[in-house]
Amino acid sequence: MAAVDDEIRWLDAEEQAVWRTLLRAQSRIEEELDRDLQTRNGISLVEFGILVALSEAPGMRMRMRVLADSVIVSKSRLSHQITRLERAGHVRREPCEEDRRGFWAILTDQGLGVLHDAAKGHVDLVRRRVFDRLTREQVRQLGSIMRVLEPEGGADA
What we know:
This protein is mainly alpha-helical. Helix content is 66%, strand content 8%. A three-stranded antiparallel beta sheet has the order 1-3-2. Strand 2 and strand 3 form a beta hairpin. Helix 2 packs across helix 6 and helix 4 (64-71) crosses helix 5. It starts with a helix and ends in an 8-residue tail after the last helix. The model has no long low-confidence stretch (mean pLDDT 91).
């Protein structure tokens, strides 16, 4: 076992503390945002992200596989979430003419209304939970750090 341990570049105490704090903060923020959206608007944080991505896409529609990459969920989880949003009337699916196996997810007017209703409370909570706690310089530093940490081929690549 000692040979294996020699191959591992363990985190030092400071790195371990920062890593665990990062994981806890991310988890708690996501839980709080999800709970708030579900309570206020009846949608999950993932569903909110789907509605946002569709609202920003040309024609308020995206190919399902591109949407899955955009909101960072598996294709099967996206399919489940789209089914929920479709039942609620927030999105609809249409087959892709160019690729018979592919589908478009399209934001409906009702879905756009739900997004607008949810956005104010969501943005207020994001501000209170994150940005109001940071100075402008810390926001810039956090942005710089996150750009370094985002994997190549990330959302903006």
